[in-house]
Design goal:
Blueprint (H helix, E strand, L loop, with lengths): L1 E10 L3 H18 L3 E8 L8 E10 L2 H23 L3 E9 L4
Antiparallel strand pairs: 1-3, 1-4, 2-3
Length: 102
């Protein structure tokens, strides 16, 4: 099992619209295939420049092959949609983590 995490930095001028888009468009589309599961959205408690906010969106996925398949079939288009909708006012970086036993 892996965690697919994307941390976004959103300009305050689009933050409300961006969160709405994540909740109403991105997350429902992302989980529709059944490849991505257990979405979790969090606001990062970090000091920003006062002009932006940071958010983390996480999903669980069975393995990297499944994630790559999902990205090719659905994810790349959703990212393009985000870029077109929010231009450079939202940027993100992705991390892929392996779940470990404790």
């Amino acid at each position: 099992m892996i965690i697919y995490n994307t941390t976004y930095n959103s300009d305050n001028s689009v933050a409300v619209a961006f969160i709405k888009w994540l909740r109403t468009r991105f997350i429902p589309q992302a989980i529709q295939s059944g490849d991505l599961k257990e979405p979790r959205l969090a606001h990062l408690m970090v000091e920003n420049d006062g002009k932006s906010n940071s958010f983390s969106l996480q999903f669980t996925v069975e393995n990297v092959d499944t994630l790559e398949k999902w990205y090719k079939e659905y994810g790349a288009e959703l990212i393009r949609e985000m870029e077109c909708s929010f231009n450079q006012k939202v940027v993100g970086f992705t991390t892929i983590m392996t779940v470990m036993d404790i």
